[in-house]
Design goal:
15 helices
């Protein structure tokens, strides 16, 4: 397919993005990057992990997006005593019909917010894993497909806090993007304060539908990505596993495990969605750079030496981006 044709197609299909951003902006001040990344997750079916201190409107942002997209939204508050059945559902006995029936849990929604996911024990986290990976849930001996689109947005507070369980690597790898949510600027904070203390509640109205998202997804799969850019993606991911081969010997002592092949797949699809949101039918190296840290930061596992040197996985990933040759 010709790039010009794809470009026109992208411009038609991505028209709803501006309306959506404006509608979310009625409720949420700032946090453009967070909204952008959640949209990338929605448009590619990739789950998103948000990390930030409490009070940065993480929950409100997800709820507002669900309102603006007329999607079914469920929030699950993760606590240490949560059970897998509290998420996926359970089998109950129906006396009237003298039979066991499945009672579906809150996971059956389009947008599921797993709030403070790192407060729940491993058993609950693994119940969520099947849903995220297989997009289906087993209750008793019956398997139920989850609605489409289905996206898990998980939030976690930074790990030094009391009573948290670090997410296992296998589960972190299931998240397409990990987004660090920062504090608002001084001007934004003033706007937030004024808006939240005015006594007027503003809600987002539906401006797009799940069908728009489905249509956009099929276009994103056609966004053009050049062979040189595909090689660039693979080089970046391979550099996390074997930094010496790319002249980054100084990083070899800091990286315990590099990124899995999921990183290459997610970098490719996230870059296409990033281009789509900017109404482009082709991917540039800038798309890879813009989204790369969010895709890779939680997949690079550091050694104790790196921790002793107070090196973060984000700094390691940024060094890779500085050194790997851009096409």
């Amino acid at each position: 397919m010709d790039v010009r044709v794809i470009n026109e197609l992208v411009q038609q299909q991505s028209a709803f993005v501006e309306k959506l951003s404006a509608e979310v902006g009625k409720v949420i001040v700032g946090q453009k990057m967070m909204v952008d990344r959640i949209l990338i997750g929605l448009l590619t079916g990739g789950h998103v992990l948000l990390e930030g201190v409490p009070g940065l409107a993480k929950t409100l942002t997800v709820k507002t997006l669900a309102d603006a997209l007329a999607m079914r939204f469920q929030r699950i508050q993760f606590t240490p005593d949560l059970l897998p059945a509290d998420i996926v559902g359970t089998v109950i006995y129906n006396q009237g019909r003298s039979e066991f029936v499945s009672k579906k849990g809150p996971i059956f929604a389009n947008l599921v917010l797993a709030d403070e996911i790192n407060r729940a024990p491993a058993k609950v986290q693994s119940a969520l894993l099947e849903a995220m990976q297989e997009r289906q849930v087993t209750i008793g001996d019956a398997t139920h497909p989850l609605p489409d689109p289905f996206l898990v947005m998980a939030t976690q507070n930074p790990l030094e806090q009391e009573g948290t369980y670090a997410l296992p690597e296998a589960q972190l790898d299931r998240f397409m993007l990990m987004i660090k949510v920062g504090y608002p600027t001084k001007e934004e904070e003033r706007a937030i304060m004024d808006r939240m203390t005015s006594g007027i509640t503003v809600r987002a109205e539906p401006v797009a539908t799940p069908q728009d998202i489905a249509a956009a997804r099929s276009v994103i799969n056609q966004v053009y990505i050049d062979d040189k850019i595909r090689d660039y993606i693979v080089n970046l991911v391979h550099a996390t596993r074997d930094p010496k081969a790319y002249g980054l010997g100084q990083l070899a002592d800091f990286i315990q495990f590099g990124a899995s092949p999921r990183a290459s797949i997610y970098l490719n699809t996230a870059a296409r969605a990033h281009a789509f949101l900017r109404h482009r039918g082709y991917v540039t190296p800038e798309d890879i750079k813009a989204i790369g840290v969010d895709v890779l930061r939680h997949r690079v596992i550091l050694t104790y030496e790196a921790e002793a040197e107070e090196m973060t996985s984000e700094q390691v990933v940024r060094k890779l981006f500085e050194h790997i040759e851009v096409p």
